[in-house]
Specification:
The chain is of the alpha+beta class. The protein has six helices and twelve strands. The protein is 20% helix and 29% strand. It has a twelve-stranded mixed beta sheet with strand order 7-8-9-10-11-1-2-3-4-5-6-12. Strand 10 and strand 11 form a beta hairpin. Helix 1 crosses helix 6. The two termini are 20 Å apart. This is Lipoprotein.
Length: 275
Amino acid sequence: MMTNGTGRAGTVRRGAGALAAVLATTLLVGCGPAGTDSGAGGTGSATPSASPKQALLAAVPDGSEGAFRFSGKDATSDLSGVVDPDAKGIDLTAAVKDPEHGFTTRMSFLVVQERIWMKVKFTGTEGLTGLPKLPNRWMELDRSRLTDPDATPTYEGVDVGNAGPIIQAATTVEEKADRRYAGVVDLTAAEAAKAVGEEEVAALGDAARQVPFTAVVGADGNLTSLTLDVPAVGTAKAWTYVVKYADYGSAPKLAAPGGDAAQPAPKVAYQMLNG
């Protein structure tokens, strides 16, 4: 038996499963039904009499903008990708570094309609043994073979960063110069806690009721960024929740990979995801 192989592989499986869950839930909790934006206007422009809050909600994507890129981070993860409402698809990638062994797991998911594919790449593995051998192609997953099918992403609407629920929970919103906004969010209200993470919000205590945020709207009337400055509480450090949207209508469209670009997922892929 390879030295530490079982323990390391177990770490990888747990890490991969956790990373899959991160990709499915962090910034992707889908607070509204598919194709909706959980209360945001999503028209890309506000009426002349709209309040700053209404104007900001109107800038949240609703699917009419075409494919666009997104990126986001919270207390524990960073991820990025593309949303294509026409394909009912998302392409998202995240990377996590193993704190004990130093290697990095980079995991990508592609969702088109009801189908899902995965790619996994390990880097910084010099001198390590016991890591699973995976193909470099897209691996199509059968959700029925997953212990927790909900731990992998599904298409649940275009506002993958949950900007709509967060802005909806704002108690104050002020419009600044150059299409910039600032205000305060009550993360205990409405769907905001689910959007940011219920455990993280609970840990904030009363501080969760007054979390400052900033937002920027592009010249096209679409939201480009939303940032929450989450304060330090007790032994927990301060952190930021950041959502960025870009390239509205010009990002690459998503489609199911064909030919040699894809294959059915091997058994080892399910072992990783199922832990």
